[in-house]
Amino acid sequence: MDLPTVASATPTLAEVTPSALAALGVAGFTDTLGFGQRSRVCVLLIDGLGWELLAAHASDAPVLSGLPGKPLCAGYPATTAAGLAAIGTGTASGEHGFVGYTFDLPGVGVLNALRWREHPGGGDLRERVSPAEVQRLPTTFARATEAGLTATVVSSEIFAGTPLTRAVLSGGSYVGVHALGDLVAAVPVALRSRGSFCYAYHGDLDRLGHLHGPGSVPWRMQLRQVDRLVESMIEQLPEGSALAVVADHGMTTLDRDTGSQGCVIDADTEPALADGVRAIAGEVRARHVYAESGAATDVLATWREMLGDRAWVMRRHEAVDAGWFGPVVADHVLPRIGDVVVAARGRSGVVRSVKEPQETALAGQHGSLTPEEQFVPFILAEV
After folding, report:
1. Could you check whether the bond before residue 120 is cis, i.e. omega within 30 degrees of 0?
2. Is 8 part of a structural domain of the chain?
3. What's 182's DSSP letter?
4. CATH label of the domain that carries residue 19
5. In terms of domains, do 136 and 52 share one?
6. 358, 349, 340, 338: which is closest to 284 by C-alpha?
7. Do you know which Gene3D superfamilies this protein is assigned to (predicted)?
8. What is the CATH number of the domain that holds 353?
9. Residue 77 has what DSSP assignment?
10. pLDDT tens for residues 110-147?
11. In the 8-state DSSP scheme, what is residue 377?
């Protein structure tokens, strides 16, 4: 089977905040994305806005489509926890350690990175697992603050103080918002002084993509609201500001056929996929498979046979050597990667109907290495 590599010629999501800080004059960072010299910068992340999806639905987003832009590579896995950590640390998943929506944390078990609970359906881990243990690097917001900038995170009030927020977005002020209106209103306040760095987040497009499918009518109507959000934000920006619109991943719609000849395999109803396996993590299109001691070779062979051309099925070291998790994989991060790594091809996926019924039911999915999932926009507006 051909072994895909992450496209090195395409800039990455992990370059966004380092480039922004370089544009603001912070020493030790390089502007690889072309922000230019700035006194105020806001990075707006629209969860789930893939570059290919935006191009396919340009008529629903005339403002975004009319601004100068280029694609970035989200990195593997193309999922929110990893994308937010890339923004928050300026590194790829092999360094920041969020190698999936869920992943095995040695000595703890499988961690759901968004909910900070044992996965699937386990107990709360907030008392047992500290954010600083999972993500050990200084955040870009902390480094901005140390350099004398005013650093602000503008995101939903429900995410204030969560373990994921503390792990990857700490170091500046957090402004909790409730809807599009106060999101737009909060950004110019965060940029009111020279030397201001702001990160803002909006997640509804991703939610509708999961529920109805990317490109569906509800998704397109939400894209129109996102476009108006960007237009309103630009109108309110102080002079000398730059607004970069990015995303954490794209999305694809699964072919819901299941069974031996279908696109989707259900790991909970295929007994062979459990042989020698102690845990399955990741998500539908980007799985980590953790083998029992001594069983990794047999697990690899079984998963390759069962999935066939539905997925790239690789040993841990093969995926690492191919650069899937970035140029560096830290020693403490390596065991979080499955003994077997499964990246879906086409519109396939590995669902778990018993253990993950909610995730299994979602129409839109992401995580893998396809262009639909990997390429996200970098759109720059200047005031």
Report:
1. yes
2. no
3. H
4. 3.40.720.10
5. yes
6. 349
7. Alkaline Phosphatase, subunit A (3.40.720.10)
8. 3.30.1360.180
9. S
10. 999 999 999 998 899 999 999 999 999 999 999 999 99
11. E
